[in-house]
Protein backbone atom coordinates (compact mmCIF):
# COMPACT_ATOMS: atom_id res chain seq x y z
CA UNK A 1 0.00 0.00 0.00
CA UNK A 2 2.91 2.37 0.61
CA UNK A 3 3.25 3.75 -2.97
CA UNK A 4 -0.46 4.58 -2.98
CA UNK A 5 -0.26 6.14 0.49
CA UNK A 6 2.56 8.32 -0.89
CA UNK A 7 0.28 9.42 -3.73
CA UNK A 8 -2.37 10.41 -1.19
CA UNK A 9 0.20 12.32 0.91
CA UNK A 10 1.40 14.23 -2.17
CA UNK A 11 -2.19 15.14 -2.99
CA UNK A 12 -2.70 16.27 0.62
CA UNK A 13 0.40 18.48 0.45
CA UNK A 14 -0.60 20.14 -2.82
CA UNK A 15 -4.35 20.50 -2.32
CA UNK A 16 -4.55 21.19 1.43
CA UNK A 17 -1.24 22.22 2.98
CA UNK A 18 0.02 24.44 0.14
CA UNK A 19 -3.13 26.64 0.01
CA UNK A 20 -3.19 26.80 3.82
CA UNK A 21 0.41 28.07 3.93
CA UNK A 22 -0.29 30.63 1.20
CA UNK A 23 -3.28 31.97 3.07
CA UNK A 24 -1.53 32.11 6.43
CA UNK A 25 0.69 35.09 5.61
CA UNK A 26 0.88 37.69 2.83
CA UNK A 27 4.60 37.03 2.51
CA UNK A 28 3.86 33.37 1.69
CA UNK A 29 1.41 34.03 -1.15
CA UNK A 30 3.86 32.55 -3.70
CA UNK A 31 4.71 29.46 -1.61
CA UNK A 32 4.68 26.16 -3.49
CA UNK A 33 6.06 22.61 -3.34
CA UNK A 34 8.33 21.91 -6.30
CA UNK A 35 8.99 18.26 -5.42
CA UNK A 36 7.36 15.77 -3.05
CA UNK A 37 8.97 12.33 -2.67
CA UNK A 38 8.17 10.57 0.61
CA UNK A 39 10.71 7.81 -0.05
CA UNK A 40 10.54 4.03 -0.26
CA UNK A 41 10.78 3.20 3.45
CA UNK A 42 7.20 2.51 4.62
CA UNK A 43 5.60 3.51 7.88
CA UNK A 44 5.72 0.85 10.64
CA UNK A 45 2.80 -0.05 12.90
CA UNK A 46 4.28 -1.33 16.17
CA UNK A 47 1.01 -2.06 17.95
CA UNK A 48 -2.76 -1.83 17.61
CA UNK A 49 -5.38 -1.28 20.32
CA UNK A 50 -9.06 -1.82 19.58
CA UNK A 51 -11.70 -0.30 21.87
CA UNK A 52 -14.70 -2.47 22.73
CA UNK A 53 -16.24 -0.47 25.59
CA UNK A 54 -17.84 2.99 25.63
CA UNK A 55 -18.00 3.10 21.83
CA UNK A 56 -20.87 3.45 19.38
CA UNK A 57 -21.93 0.15 17.77
CA UNK A 58 -21.73 1.78 14.33
CA UNK A 59 -18.02 2.56 14.60
CA UNK A 60 -14.68 0.85 15.12
CA UNK A 61 -11.93 2.73 16.98
CA UNK A 62 -8.29 1.72 16.52
CA UNK A 63 -5.19 3.27 18.11
CA UNK A 64 -2.06 2.61 16.06
CA UNK A 65 1.43 3.01 17.52
CA UNK A 66 3.20 4.29 14.43
CA UNK A 67 6.84 4.90 13.65
CA UNK A 68 8.16 6.45 10.46
CA UNK A 69 11.85 7.05 9.74
CA UNK A 70 12.17 7.96 6.10
CA UNK A 71 14.64 9.52 3.72
CA UNK A 72 12.41 11.79 1.70
CA UNK A 73 12.92 14.67 -0.69
CA UNK A 74 10.53 17.57 -0.35
CA UNK A 75 11.49 20.85 -2.02
CA UNK A 76 9.65 24.12 -1.63
CA UNK A 77 10.11 27.67 -2.81
CA UNK A 78 8.76 31.17 -2.26
CA UNK A 79 9.08 32.80 -5.68
CA UNK A 80 8.48 36.31 -4.38
CA UNK A 81 11.76 36.21 -2.39
CA UNK A 82 13.68 33.73 -4.60
CA UNK A 83 13.88 31.49 -1.55
CA UNK A 84 14.28 27.71 -1.68
CA UNK A 85 14.34 25.15 1.11
CA UNK A 86 13.65 21.47 1.54
CA UNK A 87 13.41 18.41 3.74
CA UNK A 88 15.89 15.51 3.54
CA UNK A 89 14.41 13.22 6.18
CA UNK A 90 11.46 12.97 8.56
CA UNK A 91 10.90 11.01 11.75
CA UNK A 92 7.47 10.76 13.34
CA UNK A 93 6.44 8.63 16.31
CA UNK A 94 3.10 8.69 18.09
CA UNK A 95 -0.39 7.27 18.56
CA UNK A 96 -2.64 7.69 15.55
CA UNK A 97 -6.35 7.09 16.01
CA UNK A 98 -8.29 5.55 13.14
CA UNK A 99 -12.09 5.65 13.27
CA UNK A 100 -14.11 3.54 10.86
CA UNK A 101 -17.63 4.96 10.78
CA UNK A 102 -20.43 4.65 10.04
CA UNK A 103 -20.62 0.88 9.57
CA UNK A 104 -23.17 0.10 6.85
CA UNK A 105 -25.00 -2.95 5.49
CA UNK A 106 -23.55 -2.72 1.97
CA UNK A 107 -20.05 -3.06 0.60
CA UNK A 108 -17.52 -1.73 1.46
CA UNK A 109 -19.21 -2.00 4.94
CA UNK A 110 -17.45 1.19 6.09
CA UNK A 111 -18.83 4.63 5.19
CA UNK A 112 -15.73 6.73 5.93
CA UNK A 113 -12.27 6.70 7.47
CA UNK A 114 -10.98 9.38 9.90
CA UNK A 115 -7.31 9.79 10.93
CA UNK A 116 -5.70 12.02 13.56
CA UNK A 117 -3.21 12.05 16.42
CA UNK A 118 -4.62 12.14 19.96
CA UNK A 119 -1.68 14.23 21.16
CA UNK A 120 1.30 15.94 19.57
CA UNK A 121 3.56 13.28 18.03
CA UNK A 122 7.32 13.29 18.28
CA UNK A 123 8.41 14.95 15.05
CA UNK A 124 11.93 15.51 13.75
CA UNK A 125 12.70 17.12 10.40
CA UNK A 126 16.11 17.40 8.76
CA UNK A 127 15.91 20.67 6.80
CA UNK A 128 17.98 22.04 3.96
CA UNK A 129 18.04 25.78 3.40
CA UNK A 130 16.05 26.54 6.58
CA UNK A 131 18.14 29.67 7.19
CA UNK A 132 17.03 31.05 3.82
CA UNK A 133 13.41 30.34 4.69
CA UNK A 134 13.65 32.12 8.05
CA UNK A 135 15.13 35.19 6.37
CA UNK A 136 11.81 35.84 4.63
CA UNK A 137 10.06 38.96 6.07
CA UNK A 138 7.32 37.95 8.44
CA UNK A 139 9.02 34.62 9.22
CA UNK A 140 12.17 35.89 10.90
CA UNK A 141 10.54 35.52 14.33
CA UNK A 142 10.05 31.79 13.80
CA UNK A 143 12.43 29.00 14.69
CA UNK A 144 12.87 25.31 13.92
CA UNK A 145 10.98 24.38 17.11
CA UNK A 146 8.04 26.70 16.40
CA UNK A 147 7.70 25.36 12.86
CA UNK A 148 7.66 21.77 14.17
CA UNK A 149 4.95 22.71 16.68
CA UNK A 150 2.83 24.27 13.92
CA UNK A 151 3.14 21.14 11.76
CA UNK A 152 2.51 18.78 14.70
CA UNK A 153 -0.61 20.65 15.84
CA UNK A 154 -2.01 20.48 12.32
CA UNK A 155 -2.08 16.68 12.72
CA UNK A 156 -3.61 16.65 16.21
CA UNK A 157 -7.24 16.47 17.29
CA UNK A 158 -9.59 18.31 16.68
CA UNK A 159 -7.91 18.49 13.24
CA UNK A 160 -8.57 15.29 11.33
CA UNK A 161 -8.31 13.78 7.88
CA UNK A 162 -11.63 12.27 6.81
CA UNK A 163 -11.91 10.13 3.69
CA UNK A 164 -15.44 9.15 2.54
CA UNK A 165 -15.74 5.65 1.10
CA UNK A 166 -19.37 5.94 -0.04
CA UNK A 167 -21.22 8.91 -1.50
CA UNK A 168 -24.14 8.87 0.97
CA UNK A 169 -22.07 9.58 4.10
CA UNK A 170 -22.52 12.93 5.90
CA UNK A 171 -18.89 14.05 5.70
CA UNK A 172 -19.39 17.33 7.60
CA UNK A 173 -20.64 15.50 10.71
CA UNK A 174 -17.56 13.27 10.66
CA UNK A 175 -15.05 16.06 10.09
CA UNK A 176 -16.61 18.41 12.64
CA UNK A 177 -18.26 16.27 15.34
CA UNK A 178 -19.85 17.76 18.42
CA UNK A 179 -17.45 17.50 21.39
CA UNK A 180 -18.05 14.71 23.88
CA UNK A 181 -17.76 17.20 26.75
CA UNK A 182 -15.72 19.96 28.38
CA UNK A 183 -13.07 19.53 31.07
CA UNK A 184 -12.67 22.47 33.46
CA UNK A 185 -9.14 22.54 34.84
CA UNK A 186 -8.51 24.40 38.10
CA UNK A 187 -4.72 24.86 38.13
CA UNK A 188 -4.37 25.64 41.82
CA UNK A 189 -0.94 25.18 43.40
CA UNK A 190 2.20 23.07 43.76
CA UNK A 191 4.37 22.01 46.67
CA UNK A 192 7.99 21.05 47.25
CA UNK A 193 9.24 21.77 43.72
CA UNK A 194 12.92 21.43 42.87
CA UNK A 195 15.06 24.55 43.18
CA UNK A 196 16.73 25.02 39.81
CA UNK A 197 18.22 28.50 40.21
CA UNK A 198 21.76 28.48 41.61
CA UNK A 199 24.24 31.16 42.66
CA UNK A 200 28.01 31.37 43.06
CA UNK A 201 28.55 28.84 40.26
CA UNK A 202 26.18 26.30 41.78
CA UNK A 203 27.43 26.41 45.35
CA UNK A 204 24.28 28.10 46.66
CA UNK A 205 20.96 26.45 45.76
CA UNK A 206 18.18 28.92 45.07
CA UNK A 207 14.51 28.69 44.23
CA UNK A 208 12.58 28.46 40.96
CA UNK A 209 10.24 30.63 38.89
CA UNK A 210 7.61 27.98 38.09
CA UNK A 211 4.88 28.02 35.46
CA UNK A 212 2.76 25.32 33.87
CA UNK A 213 1.85 24.29 30.32
CA UNK A 214 -1.47 22.45 30.02
CA UNK A 215 -2.45 20.48 26.91
CA UNK A 216 -5.59 18.70 25.77
CA UNK A 217 -5.03 17.65 22.16
CA UNK A 218 -3.84 20.78 20.35
CA UNK A 219 -5.44 23.10 22.93
CA UNK A 220 -2.56 24.65 24.89
CA UNK A 221 -2.70 26.90 27.95
CA UNK A 222 0.18 28.52 29.84
CA UNK A 223 -0.08 29.76 33.40
CA UNK A 224 1.51 32.87 34.85
CA UNK A 225 5.04 32.69 36.29
CA UNK A 226 5.42 32.76 40.09
CA UNK A 227 8.79 34.29 40.93
CA UNK A 228 11.20 32.60 43.39
CA UNK A 229 8.77 30.13 44.94
CA UNK A 230 8.94 26.36 45.42
CA UNK A 231 5.33 26.27 46.67
CA UNK A 232 3.59 28.43 44.06
CA UNK A 233 -0.13 29.26 44.05
CA UNK A 234 -1.60 29.98 40.62
CA UNK A 235 -5.37 29.69 41.22
CA UNK A 236 -6.09 29.75 37.49
CA UNK A 237 -8.77 27.91 35.56
CA UNK A 238 -8.99 26.72 31.95
CA UNK A 239 -11.65 24.99 29.90
CA UNK A 240 -10.86 22.53 27.10
CA UNK A 241 -13.09 20.70 24.64
CA UNK A 242 -12.83 16.90 24.65
CA UNK A 243 -13.56 15.32 21.28
CA UNK A 244 -12.47 11.74 21.86
CA UNK A 245 -12.74 9.41 24.80
CA UNK A 246 -11.46 6.93 25.65
CA UNK A 247 -7.98 7.94 24.58
CA UNK A 248 -7.57 11.67 25.21
CA UNK A 249 -5.43 12.73 28.15
CA UNK A 250 -4.72 15.88 30.08
CA UNK A 251 -0.99 16.65 29.86
CA UNK A 252 0.74 19.07 32.22
CA UNK A 253 4.39 20.10 32.34
CA UNK A 254 5.98 22.43 34.89
CA UNK A 255 9.02 24.55 34.07
CA UNK A 256 11.32 27.03 35.79
CA UNK A 257 11.55 30.22 33.72
CA UNK A 258 15.13 31.17 32.87
CA UNK A 259 16.71 33.78 30.55
CA UNK A 260 18.20 31.08 28.29
CA UNK A 261 16.51 27.65 28.54
CA UNK A 262 13.69 26.86 30.95
CA UNK A 263 14.37 23.97 33.36
CA UNK A 264 11.99 21.01 33.64
CA UNK A 265 10.17 20.66 36.99
CA UNK A 266 7.95 17.63 36.37
CA UNK A 267 5.02 16.36 34.37
CA UNK A 268 1.62 14.78 34.82
CA UNK A 269 -0.74 12.84 32.54
CA UNK A 270 -4.37 12.11 33.46
CA UNK A 271 -6.77 9.93 31.46
CA UNK A 272 -9.89 12.02 30.85
CA UNK A 273 -12.12 8.93 30.96
CA UNK A 274 -11.41 8.86 34.71
CA UNK A 275 -12.45 12.49 35.04
CA UNK A 276 -15.68 11.72 33.21
CA UNK A 277 -16.43 8.77 35.53
CA UNK A 278 -15.80 10.77 38.72
CA UNK A 279 -17.31 14.02 37.37
CA UNK A 280 -15.21 15.93 39.94
CA UNK A 281 -11.61 15.28 41.03
CA UNK A 282 -9.91 17.46 43.66
CA UNK A 283 -6.54 15.89 44.47
CA UNK A 284 -2.81 16.33 44.97
CA UNK A 285 -0.91 14.53 42.19
CA UNK A 286 2.73 13.42 42.47
CA UNK A 287 4.81 14.79 39.59
CA UNK A 288 6.50 12.32 37.24
CA UNK A 289 10.09 12.35 35.90
CA UNK A 290 11.44 14.31 38.90
CA UNK A 291 12.58 13.36 42.39
CA UNK A 292 10.00 15.47 44.24
CA UNK A 293 7.06 17.80 43.83
CA UNK A 294 3.24 17.66 43.94
CA UNK A 295 0.53 19.47 42.00
CA UNK A 296 -2.95 20.35 43.27
CA UNK A 297 -5.67 20.18 40.62
CA UNK A 298 -9.45 20.34 40.62
CA UNK A 299 -10.95 18.79 37.50
CA UNK A 300 -14.61 18.98 36.48
CA UNK A 301 -16.32 17.10 33.66
CA UNK A 302 -19.10 19.11 32.01
CA UNK A 303 -21.64 17.38 29.78
CA UNK A 304 -23.14 19.23 26.82
CA UNK A 305 -26.94 19.48 26.92
CA UNK A 306 -28.88 19.98 23.65
CA UNK A 307 -31.39 22.42 25.20
CA UNK A 308 -31.21 25.49 27.45
CA UNK A 309 -33.49 24.10 30.17
CA UNK A 310 -30.76 24.08 32.83
CA UNK A 311 -29.03 27.30 31.76
CA UNK A 312 -30.35 29.42 34.67
CA UNK A 313 -29.21 26.75 37.15
CA UNK A 314 -25.73 26.69 35.59
CA UNK A 315 -25.44 30.49 35.66
CA UNK A 316 -26.48 30.55 39.32
CA UNK A 317 -23.88 27.94 40.29
CA UNK A 318 -21.12 29.87 38.50
CA UNK A 319 -22.01 33.14 40.24
CA UNK A 320 -22.14 31.37 43.62
CA UNK A 321 -18.52 30.19 43.41
CA UNK A 322 -16.31 33.11 44.50
CA UNK A 323 -13.02 31.28 43.80
CA UNK A 324 -13.38 31.11 40.04
CA UNK A 325 -11.19 32.84 37.47
CA UNK A 326 -11.44 36.60 37.11
CA UNK A 327 -12.69 36.38 33.53
CA UNK A 328 -15.56 34.06 34.45
CA UNK A 329 -16.47 30.57 33.36
CA UNK A 330 -18.46 29.27 30.42
CA UNK A 331 -22.10 28.32 30.73
CA UNK A 332 -22.76 27.30 27.12
CA UNK A 333 -20.95 26.30 23.93
CA UNK A 334 -21.56 27.81 20.51
CA UNK A 335 -20.60 25.58 17.58
CA UNK A 336 -20.42 27.29 14.20
CA UNK A 337 -19.96 25.28 11.02
CA UNK A 338 -19.22 27.33 7.89
CA UNK A 339 -20.67 25.20 5.09
CA UNK A 340 -20.34 27.13 1.83
CA UNK A 341 -20.67 30.50 0.11
CA UNK A 342 -22.36 31.60 -3.11
CA UNK A 343 -22.39 34.58 -5.46
CA UNK A 344 -19.28 36.18 -4.00
CA UNK A 345 -18.18 39.42 -5.69
CA UNK A 346 -15.43 39.08 -8.25
CA UNK A 347 -12.22 40.87 -7.30
CA UNK A 348 -10.31 42.60 -10.08
CA UNK A 349 -6.65 43.48 -10.13
CA UNK A 350 -6.18 46.88 -11.83
CA UNK A 351 -2.80 47.43 -13.45
CA UNK A 352 -1.49 50.65 -14.94
CA UNK A 353 0.02 50.25 -18.38
CA UNK A 354 3.61 51.25 -18.81
CA UNK A 355 4.91 52.75 -22.02
CA UNK A 356 8.50 53.17 -23.02
Automatic annotation (TrEMBL):
Chain ranges of the C2 domain: 165-285
Biological-process GO terms, alphabetical: endoplasmic reticulum-plasma membrane tethering; lipid transport
Bilayer disposition of the protein: Peripheral membrane protein; Multi-pass membrane protein
Source organism superkingdom: Eukaryota
One example GO MF annotation: calcium-dependent phospholipid binding
Domain SMP-LTD: 1-166
A Pfam family that the UniProt record links to this protein: SMP_LBD
Protein name: ESYT2 protein
Taxonomic lineage from the root: Eukaryota, Metazoa, Chordata, Craniata, Vertebrata
Amino acid sequence: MWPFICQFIEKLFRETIEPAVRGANNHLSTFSFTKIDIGHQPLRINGVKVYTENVDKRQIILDLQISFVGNCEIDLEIKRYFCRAGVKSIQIHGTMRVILEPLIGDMPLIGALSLFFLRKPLLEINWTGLTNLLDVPGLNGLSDTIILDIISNYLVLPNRITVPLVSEVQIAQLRFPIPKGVVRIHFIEAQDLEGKDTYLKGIVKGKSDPYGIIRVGNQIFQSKVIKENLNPKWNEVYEALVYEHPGQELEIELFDEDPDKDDFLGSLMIDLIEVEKERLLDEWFTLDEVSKGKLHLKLEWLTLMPTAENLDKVLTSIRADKDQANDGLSSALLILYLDSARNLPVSYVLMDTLSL
